[in-house]
Amino acid sequence: xxxxxxxxxxxxxxxxxxxxxxxxxxxxxxxxxxxxxxxxxxxxxxxxxxxxxxxxxxxxxxxxxxxxxxxxxxxxxxxxxxxxxxxxxxxxxxxxxxxxxxxxxxxxxxxxxxxxxxxxxxxxxxxxxxxxxxxxxxxxxxxxxxxxxxxxxxxxxxxxxxxxxxxxxxxxxxxxxxxxxxxxxxxxxxxxxxxxxxxxxxxxxxxxxxxxxxxxxxxxxxxxxxxxxxxxxxxxxxxxxxxxxxxxxxxxxxxxxxxxxxxxxxxxxxxxxxxxxxxxxxxxxxxxxxxxxx
Length: 294
Prior knowledge:
Elements: H1 3-22, H2 24-29, E1 32-34, H3 37-46, E2 51-55, H4 67-71, E3 75-76, H5 80-86, E4 90-94, H6 99-107, E5 112-115, H7 121-134, H8 138-159, E6 165-168, E7 174-176, H9 181-188, E8 192-193, H10 194-197, E9 203-205, H11 208-214, E10 218-223, H12 231-234, E11 251-254, H13 264-279
Parallel strand pairs: 1-2, 1-4, 2-3, 4-5, 6-8, 6-10, 10-11
Antiparallel strand pairs: 7-9
Helix pairs in contact: 7-8, 8-13
């Protein structure tokens, strides 16, 4: 079993045992209220026993290891009435969420903390360290950062020499360019983001015709699992995508794995690596599997 699996198992098991033994009483005694889905997930790995409430989005079904823990913690909808009833020691939100709640919570004297949206890995590491400081879990935060760095480095050593030109295509054709975490994520795996060559900064939209013109070796499509059909994602099943002259078939990965800078993104990285390995020709297909990636 790799470092990632041991690390995840340790904290998921700890949280599960906590809830089996104490249940809802633990939520009443805990002091941290999260009003952001990514904060929910990060705290679910870092210090789940300190969570008194998580955002309602974390009670939705998904394929994340931390979800069973989060579903056992009462949910909130970011309302000031919920804050007053819960009386948390602190509230933690994200940079772009719940601006109305922030104003009201601080007006009523509650401590409000906020994590900025990370655009690269140094910023993500600062967020983990900041959470560790707020929750007095600095050692756990440092361990998380080491796990993320070591696992991605292992994959990067394998994929980097292959010179693969890739692109992540999100709903409505949005692609990540420079100063965007998805670009940093591709680089961390040793993949080259073709959107950078096209001059994309931050976020940009790409058409099917442009994708063909870019000729990426690999197209990665984050796929959501909320049920039903959406026009924003229907075009991702267009037959022309299968005709893009890439070296590898189009790969769909769970969008939830890529969203929050948690160990879930390592699961996506391994899926991408395995996909490349399965479809690589010649000597590439014989490369060893990266160590510690599970």
